[in-house]
Amino acid sequence: MASLKELKLRIGSVKSTQKITKAKQMVAAAKLRKAQAAAEAARPYSQRLEAVVASLASKIAGGSGEGASPLLAGTGKDEVHLLVVANSDRGLAGAFNANIVKAARARADELIQQGKTVRFYLIGRKGRPVINRTFPGMIVAQFDTTGAKEPGYSQAEQIAHELTDMYLNGKFDVAHLFFSRFKSALAQIPTEQQIIPVKIPEDADRNAIAATVEYEPSEEAILDDLLPRNITVQLFKALLENNASEQGASMTAMDNATRNAGDLINKLTIQYNRSRQAAITTELVEIISGAEAL
């Protein structure tokens, strides 16, 4: 049984930890409001741009498709898949990073079973240890985000440029992006999105845009300009969604940690009081026994 001194030290230690988790919870809550607003503001633009690109792509694919950008036409193969896994650089966010990595690992296992070659491109540091341990030698590149306090469009541009160069140099055939879509502080949804080449929805209306819009220059020329921009925008959206998800997960995790610390403090305090009462009772018994002996 722990001594009174040990119990007192444990209570003090847990109280210090509780102050830290409470402070981190408040910081995450403050950051969450801004991060959530940024993620929600980016969604309409990214969705609309993706829809425009898909509609143009489906129209071109429905015709001859001659001269189409490699980002649309693909390499003609489906052998090498690059999994772009977006994680954070910090922990203390519950299962936020683990859930993204879990989704990427499940996809990698599925592709490997199909006989495909899998490679990883990592954004952030937290996913690297698990992926490197599970799929040794398959990480081909990593983008460092430690110097940025919050996601920026320039980061997305750099990542998009690196991925496009790798694709055009024949390093992979298909790129899948993994990130966490923010739903609420309690719910973040691991999401997979194919970003290279552009994926044309099966239900895309190939004549919808052509019926209402005339393009100058040609659809192919416009699409050549929009495809790289769309990759950047989709990456930027993913970074913003990840940031909001991380803050939400961190706030929830720190709230749970604060509550657990409070429960532990109560239990230790009860144990301390009982031990102290037992010690006092023992001393009284000894004093009374000594007095009676006289």
From TrEMBL:
Domain of life the protein comes from: Bacteria
Record keywords, A-Z: ATP synthesis, Cell membrane, CF(1), Hydrogen ion transport, Ion transport, Membrane, Transport
Molecular function via GO: ATP binding; proton-transporting ATP synthase activity, rotational mechanism
Gene Ontology biological process terms from the UniProt entry: proton motive force-driven plasma membrane ATP synthesis
PROSITE patterns assigned to the protein according to its UniProt record, in alphabetical order: ATPASE_GAMMA
Record's subcellular location: Cell membrane; Membrane
Keyword Amino-acid biosynthesis: no
Membrane topology, record value: Peripheral membrane protein
Keyword Ion transport: yes
GO cellular component, one term: proton-transporting ATP synthase complex
Pfam families registered for this protein in UniProt: ATP-synt (PF00231)
Gene3D superfamilies (UniProt xref): 3.40.1380.10, ATP synthase, gamma subunit, helix hairpin domain (1.10.287.80)
PANTHER family: ATP SYNTHASE GAMMA CHAIN, ATP SYNTHASE SUBUNIT GAMMA, MITOCHONDRIAL
Protein family per UniProt: Belongs to the ATPase gamma chain family.
Physiological role: Produces ATP from ADP in the presence of a proton gradient across the membrane. The gamma chain is believed to be important in regulating ATPase activity and the flow of protons through the CF(0) complex.
Description of how the protein assembles with itself and partners: F-type ATPases have 2 components, CF(1) - the catalytic core - and CF(0) - the membrane proton channel. CF(1) has five subunits: alpha(3), beta(3), gamma(1), delta(1), epsilon(1). CF(0) has three main subunits: a, b and c.
Official protein name in the record: ATP synthase gamma chain
Organism of derivation: Sphingobium wenxiniae (strain DSM 21828 / CGMCC 1.7748 / JZ-1)
